[in-house]
Amino acid sequence: MLIVLGTRGEIKVNHMDDDAIHTEPVDELATAAAPVDAPVPFNKSTADVILRSSDGVDFRVKKAIIAEASTFFESLFTLPRLQAASDEYRDGLPVIPMTEDKNTLEKLLRIFYPVRDPDIDLHEIAPLLDAARKYDIDVVMDVIMRKLEASYAKTAPLKAYAVAVHFHLTSEAVEAARYYLDEEMEHVPLPEFDNISASAYIRLLNYHAKCGEAASGLAKKFRWIDSSDDWVWFECTSCPGASMRWYLKSNELRTPRTWWLQHMERSADLLKETQQHGNLCSGMV
Questions:
Q1: Going by C-beta distance under 8 Å and a sequence separation of 6 or more, which residues neighbour residue 91?
Q2: Domain BTB, which positions (predicted)?
Q3: N or C end: fewer C-beta atoms under 10 angstroms in the chain?
Q4: What is the pLDDT of residues 165-212, one digit of tens each?
Q5: Greatest CA separation found in the chain?
Q6: Domain check: are 132 and 79 in the same one?
Q7: CB 100 within 8 A of CB 53
């Protein structure tokens, strides 16, 4: 028996045909190992239902806590749906098989159970988001989205961008794209990019290029410079001046020194490749 969601959100239960006759020999060594109990606090005798992970770990939990966090389980726990969903009992408790493995299921439960929040690595975010959406657990979605934007967008922006795009998390994708401006352009295949379209990756590259142009432009046009200040690159009399004049902030035409203009030209090339967190192009994402 396995719990699945229908196309309209309804709960479906797949049962094996108990009357089927199997003529193939049974290899007892190949049969699944007996389930084991999950660690504290998911092994308490006060539980009233068991969630069994795909790799055979039993999580003894309280229906009231699960139902409060998940509208999916709130519906499932109402009779006769729970009876239909479980064809196995252990220690008198109904056993509900889950498609998530032990690690994903444990961290999913710890996020909304009254225990310390779990540590979550970036590679664990996608399966947790999948489970949170499948079981309608809003609190898990909120926690993961905040972590994706506040932490992983900074430390691993390219991977965070791919995860956010895959799950249609717009603000998280934008934040990751901005932090990616702090990094050198990578063209290394990432597993996370298997789940997004080529156009999503191209948008990221175009955004990076446009921000580079915007940053580079500051070193080519000087209307952001206040002409009322006595800048040495305008006022120095012992340095040769450039052959052209530039408009400053107040529309005043000034002639910069040649050394400064050469420095700004080199800076323009560097800024085109490296920007800082999208400060110059926040509207381009």
A1: none
A2: 47-113
A3: N
A4: 999 999 999 999 999 888 776 666 678 888 899 999 899 988 888 887
A5: 100
A6: no
A7: yes
